[in-house]
Write a structure and sequence with these properties.
The structure holds 2 protein chains of 2 kinds. By secondary structure, chain A is mainly α. Chain A has helices at residues 2-21, 26-49, 57-72, 78-103, 106-125, 130-133, 149-171, 173-183, 185-190, 195-221, 232-245, 250-268, 273-290, 295-302. Chain A has one domain (2-232). By secondary structure, chain B is mainly alpha-helical. The chains are: A mainly alpha, B mainly alpha.
């Protein structure tokens, strides 16, 4: 546990230092931190519980819209709005997804979570909710978190603390039960344990972190709209970040996020938005198709630095 | 009120058949493989764009070319991508979502996001049925749709290939043991399903206009009908297309057109949760 703590302190230092030298790119580092938080929180539930959750943006979107509604329509100050957003986003999202994952599993769970994003994005655009959600235009302007050193350092710290706590959970007895349940749910039940209790706990932590990230992200963006909340493209983006870095590792998801956000920043100077999407989606497709354990683990294992351990707690099974 | 009810019934039947053309191929492809191939509605969109541009040069002859083209695209898609990963439904599902998004982004780049392309129907004019005005082109599409559905029903019950299509989802290993070539059957289903999608592309694109993100609503329709009818069940698909056709037209007529997508989706979610096999199909995943 202490060793893991030192590792995450080093990660914090390594990822904070560049912000001092690249002041004019602070925005990029902050964005990368946000997506690292999203990728780690998604990966924490999906990769380790065995349920491929395509509705993680439900936490992000509910938190985002709630904080925007309280801030814009009800004139709440930014931080109370964020707190309320996190409570609503994580609470409502968990109340929906927890019974869902108890009732259905496998491809059905994937499809329902996938369709849920489409339902929510359609709903916020309907004229019934437009006075509250702003419809296509979204809710704007809201109080904004400006690109600054405190925000960059604070987010990096939150990202590392989250990563550390996730790893501690996964290495604990709870994590071990989760691993067994992923392999054989019935065996865990036979031992008198409820596997859904453990995956439900995983989902709750994943949702809380996702909601915190979502609420903060909306205020960093300056507006809440379908594009940065209930968006299939955003969900797929988050998954690609985790896949590229290696989704069976919190550090892998983090690295994947930084790699892709920096790549997008480079591409933005040369190509249009749709072409940028094509490149990122194609990269995700190729990695998922040919190297489901992730791009980074494969590169690292080729150099025999950290060989892939197929017997390790998290295997490289595709989900 | 009676006029509205007649409108719902007549338009419901017509739309049911159009959705049936699009969906029966999707349902068989997915039922046969035991997975959801999300790229199929995106290929339908590709077919619609091909029709828009070809029809400017060769008129109505573009339709058979589009039907064949989409069939061959789907066949190529199966042989290049799906065949390698068909054993894992999760991988197929996620990989095909990525492919669909790549296709959407490509068309957004080529044709811009907001522009809508329209084209003239092959058969112009309208007729009135029980006081309800319908375009002749739509009626012909409806008739073709029901012929296709009943034709496929006949094939699945009375031909060897049809029996193989029904047998494989029930037991792939058993089917192989008795000599059914799963790859060959799946390839044929992808080709025929793709051709039906090509036909659906003409009618759907003609009705709603062709744009770079037009694949998402057909995906919702196809998915909901497939889930409601049950994967691999032609009877289930026929029943479900009527249900969804009536539901959609009823929502547009009596409630609010802007809610049709939401309500259709909710039906799909509810069925997946409480009746995963649908009316008469198999459960996957």
């Amino acid at each position: 546990m202490i060793k893991e703590g030192y590792k995450w302190i080093i990660i914090f230092v390594v990822f904070s230092i560049p912000t001092i030298f690249f002041e004019n790119r602070l925005y990029m580092f902050i964005l990368a931190s946000f997506f690292a938080i999203f990728a780690m929180s998604w990966s924490f539930f999906t990769s380790f519980s065995g349920y491929l959750n395509l509705g993680h943006v439900i936490f992000i979107g509910l938190a985002g819209y709630t904080t925007a509604i309280f801030n814009y329509h009800l004139d709440f100050p930014i931080f109370p709005s964020i707190i309320i957003g996190v409570i609503v986003g994580s609470g409502v999202g968990w109340l929906y997804l927890y019974p869902l994952h108890r009732k259905i599993s496998g491809l059905s769970f994937e499809m329902v979570t996938f369709l849920s994003i489409l339902v929510l994005s359609d709903l916020v655009l309907t004229s019934y909710l437009r006075p509250i959600t702003g419809g296509d235009l979204g809710i704007s302007p809201i109080d904004t978190l400006l690109s600054s050193y405190p925000l960059a350092i604070g987010l990096t710290a939150f990202m590392c603390i989250t990563g550390y706590l996730f790893v501690i959970f996964l290495k604990s007895d709870y994590g071990k039960v989760l691993d067994f349940a992923r392999e054989n749910r019935d065996l865990v039940k036979t031992a008198g344990l409820d596997p859904h209790k453990y995956s439900g706990l995983c989902l709750l932590f994943s949702g809380i972190v996702g909601a915190i990230g979502g609420a903060l992200y909306i205020h960093f963006s300056g507006s809440a709209g379908v594009k940065n909340t209930f968006n299939l493209g955003l969900m797929i983006h988050i998954i690609i970040l985790a896949i590229i870095g290696g989704r069976f590792s919190m550090f892998g998801s983090l690295i994947g996020a930084y790699m892709v956000v920096f790549l997008e920043e480079i591409l933005r100077g040369f190509v249009s938005g749709p072409i940028e999407n094509i490149i990122i989606y194609s990269l995700g497709f190729l990695v998922y198709f040919f190297s489901p354990e992730g791009l980074l683990p494969r590169i690292v294992s080729l150099k025999n630095i950290l060989p892939l351990n197929k017997d390790s707690v998290a295997d490289n099974r595709r989900y | 009120m009676l006029g509205d009810i007649l409108y719902v019934v007549i338009y419901g039947v017509v739309f049911a058949s159009l959705y049936g053309i699009m969906t029966v191929g999707f349902s068989f492809i997915c039922g046969l493989g035991g997975f959801y191939d999300i790229t199929l509605p995106a290929y339908m969109m590709v077919g619609a764009f091909i029709y828009v541009f070809l029809s400017n040069h060769i008129g109505g002859w573009a339709l058979p070319i589009v039907v064949l083209a989409v069939g061959l695209i789907c066949l190529g898609h199966y042989l290049v991508f799906i065949k390698k990963i068909r054993e894992s439904p999760f991988v197929v599902f996620f990989a095909t979502i990525l492919l669909a998004l790549i296709i959407e982004s490509l068309f957004e780049h080529l044709f811009t996001k907001s522009y809508v392309y329209n084209y003239e129907p092959l058969i112009e004019g309208h007729i009135r049925i029980l006081g309800v005005k319908l375009s002749k082109d739509l009626i012909v599409g409806g008739i073709i749709g029901w012929i296709a559905l009943f034709g496929l029903r006949f094939i699945t019950r009375n031909t060897n290939i049809g029996r193989a299509i029904i047998a494989i989802p029930q037991s792939a290993r058993g089917s192989q043991i008795i000599g059914i070539n799963i790859t060959r059957v799946q390839a044929i289903v992808y080709l025929i399903g793709g051709m039906l999608l090509g036909l659906g592309a003409y009618y759907y694109g003609g009705y709603l206009g062709v744009r770079s993100h037009m694949w998402s609503y057909p995906l919702i329709i196809m998915f909901t009908i497939t889930v409601a009818g049950g994967l691999g069940s032609i009877d289930g698909v026929m029943l479900a297309t009527l249900l969804i056709g009536f539901l959609e037209v009823a929502v547009v007529t009596f409630i609010d057109p802007r809610l049709r997508g939401v309500i259709v989706l909710l039906v799909g979610i509810i069925i997946l949760i409480f009746k995963p096999k649908g009316f008469a199909g198999i459960r996957i995943g």
